[in-house]
Each structure stands twice: as C-alpha cells, then as structure tokens.
From TrEMBL:
This is Nuclease HARBI1. It comes from Temnothorax curvispinosus. It is found in: Nucleus. Its main location: nucleus. The keyword Transport does not apply. PANTHER family: GH03217P-RELATED, PTHR22930. Residues 194-345 form the DDE Tnp4 domain. Keywords: Hydrolase, Metal-binding, Nuclease, Nucleus. Belongs to the HARBI1 family. The keyword Nuclease applies. One of its GO terms (molecular function) is hydrolase activity. GO terms for cellular component: nucleus.
Length: 400
C-alpha cells in the first residue's frame, strides 16, 4: 500500500510477525529529500510507533548502477537495454545537460540527478514493457516520485527537439524519396505513406467506451506519415481509439498542409480508410469487379505503403511500453508517445535485430468482448474525392 504525503509516495512494506500481518498506518511526515537522490538508501530507516510496536521500512536499491554497470556494457548490450546506440544516447545526454530544463535544476547548489541518469532512466522506462515505475526507480537508486519528475522533464526536453526531428521534407529530400519509389517500386511521385496505429491502454476511468477501437480494446490513436527510410515526417497523436482513421486525418494539421507539402508533383499513399485526393492516393475499392490493371495498381500501392506499417512495428518493438501503456494520465501518455516517435527518428532502424521479438497487441480486451459498442465510423461524410482522375492516370501509366 502507499501513503501520499505532500506529493511524495512512500511505499510501506510491513511485516509485524512471522504471519506477515499488515496494518494501515496513519500518514507519515515527509521523510525524503527528493532532490538529493545520492543518499545511501540501505542506511535509510524510518521508525513509526503503532500500538507500542516499532516498524523498520527499507528498500533495497542498486548502488552506482550507471557508473559500475551501464558504463561497462558493450555496444550491443547497451542497445538492448536502452534502445538507442551509445553514440545517440550520449549525444542526447549532452544536449539535455545544457538545456534550460536541466540547468534550472542546479539553482541552489543542491546535488541533483545527473543528466546521464535522467536520459538513461527514461530510455529504460519506455524501452521495456515490464519496466514499471518501481522497477526503474530501484534499478537507478531513486524514489518513484523522483522518477515521475524525471520522465516529465525528459519528455518536455524531447518534445522541444521535435520540430527539428519530425518535420516536412525539404525539396531535395522529397526528390530522394520520390526517386526511391520511382526506381525501386516503379511508382511515381511518392514522398510518404500515411496510416493510423493504436496504442493499447488500460480501461480509462472517464468515458471508457470512447477508447474502444474496432479491434475491441482500449487505445489511443497515433497517425503517422513516413518516408522511404521509415522516418516520421509527421505525427498526430491523441484521438480516442473509437475515432476512425478518416476523421482523425480530416482533423489533423496535415490535411490542410497537403497542398503545401506535395505541390503538383508529389503525393502521399494511404489505405482505403482515407479519401482519394489530389495529394493522397488510395487503392481502388474492391467491389468484385476490378480490372486487372486496377488490381495490379492496388498491389503496387500496397507494396509501397507497407513502409508505414513497418515503421509502427519498429516503433513499438523498440519502445515496448507502446505495446500496452499502463499509465492513467492520458495527456502524459500522449506526450510520451510523441516523444518516442522523435527518438525513433534519431535511431538506426537496423538496430531492431537486437530487440526482443514483436508482440501481438491487437487482441480484444476481456472487459470489451461481448459488448455492443457504438463505433464512430459511419458518421463520417466522405470527402469530395478529387484525386480519382490522378489515380486513374497513374494506373494507366503502370500498365503501359
């Protein structure tokens, strides 16, 4: 059990006898200086009188984990534990060390958690589905409340980098992506692929049915656009799981930016959930009467847009908290998901070979199975599909 005292979380592990009887204690006064986390936790003893008894509360933590363990990892072990190469991680540490978010902590001259520990704690947390707050806090020798602050600070820091890491491509970058699709996939004019993915969450307390997606589990929606290298050029995250991809797209900034992004020469590729627009080409709907040329077109388009599905797969395989996010604060989860997309762009896609196998995360929630949930799919009016003639022309070119 836990007592919350002045925003501090103190976990009480009580054993008053061999039968392990447990008692509810009255609130304890503040006992930890959360900013000074270099204290020796093995020497921490708290005595609290209850009915004439004295209880000793102690947590066992790993001492000097960063100095004595992490710094001795070889490069592969480091990637497996922290999901980024040592070079990328320590470049991030160097940037964080000089950021205003970190330098502001040094006011007053008190000993703070190092920039190195901030970033490594964060990467450990987001990188492993089994890494709960207690696990990470104990490993790095800090309290849960300090870890909560670390995650907030590092998320804010990474989000400050986002505009320079996830951005629309330059003219040269567009031509590079279009060149790849033209000569490797025989599909002209493509500068990206768009799709949505769902991040599983625990059943929310408020309005839980709005989070149930068509696969029958609670989720948050992540819309992404990637280039041929599986790097995000745009992300839009935060809609509830019940909201259809087309509605998310219609309300996302990139819908209004399509003309600016693609101009007259380029377009994105989407699946059949999206409207067919001048700058967004989607497959022909299979009504059972598609021509051979149309089927060939759909097959080629599918082979091009598989890159976005692979990107989402790599994102979750690297940052495994995204298989099932178990936090309760929705806004906090949305920001961390976005931050993981930023880190994905900084990482080397080939590192995925060092990670654990992908997990199956699209199974129905037991709480949802059997329920009739009103999905918000048929409410969406179709946009005027201005790209149909462009699709027909591409289809004709592909089958000359």
């Amino acid at each position: 059990m836990a007592h919350v005292v002045d925003d501090r979380i103190v976990e009480l592990e009580l054993a008053s006898s061999d039968e392990e009887d447990f008692y509810l204690l009255p609130p304890l006064p503040p006992i930890l200086n959360e900013d000074n986390v270099e204290e020796d936790y093995n020497e921490l003893q708290i005595f609290h009188p209850i009915l004439g008894m004295i209880q000793r509360i102690e947590h066992v933590r790993i001492h000097n984990y960063v100095e004595n363990v992490i710094r001795n990892y070889n490069n592969i072990d480091f990637i497996m534990h922290f999901r980024l190469s040592r070079e990328v991680a320590y470049h991030l540490i160097d940037q964080f060390h000089v950021s205003e978010i970190f330098t502001s902590l040094q006011e007053g001259g008190r000993l703070k958690v190092t920039a190195e520990k901030h970033i490594l704690c964060y990467l450990c947390f987001v990188g492993h589905e089994s890494a709960g707050y207690r696990d990470v806090a104990d490993r790095f020798g800090i309290t849960i409340s300090v870890l909560h602050k670390i995650i907030t600070r590092v998320t804010d820091f990474i989000m400050s980098l986002a505009p320079n890491i996830i951005r629309y491509p330059t003219a040269d970058e567009k031509e590079e992506t279009a060149f790849y699709y033209r000569y490797e996939k025989e599909f002209p004019g493509v500068i990206g692929a768009i799709d949505g993915s769902h991040i599983r969450v625990d059943k929310p307390i408020e309005d839980p049915n709005s989070y149930i997606n068509r696969k029958q589990y609670f989720s948050l929606h992540l819309q992404g656009v990637v280039n041929h290298n599986m790097k995000f050029i745009d992300v839009f995250v935060g809609y509830l799981g019940s909201v259809h991809d087309a509605r998310v797209f219609r309300n996302s900034p990139i819908r209004n930016d399509l003309r600016e992004l693609c101009g007259d020469n380029y377009y994105l590729l989407g699946d059949s959930a999206y409207p067919c627009l001048k700058q967004l080409i989607v497959p022909y709907r299979d009504n059972g009467h598609l021509t051979r040329a149309q089927r060939n077109f759909n097959q080629k388009l599918s082979s091009c847009r598989v890159v976005i599905e692979n990107a989402f797969g790599c994102l979750k395989q690297r940052f495994r908290q995204l298989y099932h996010f178990k936090l309760r604060d929705i806004i906090r989860m949305v920001r961390i998901i976005h931050a993981c997309c930023v880190l994905h762009n900084m990482a080397n896609a080939r590192e995925v070979e060092y990670f654990e196998a992908p997990m199956e995360d699209e199974y129905p929630d037991i709480e949802v199975q059997g329920q009739h949930i009103e999905q918000r799919i048929n409410e969406i009016p179709r946009e005027n599909e201005t790209g149909i003639h462009i699709r027909d022309e591409i289809c004709r070119q592909l089958n000359i």
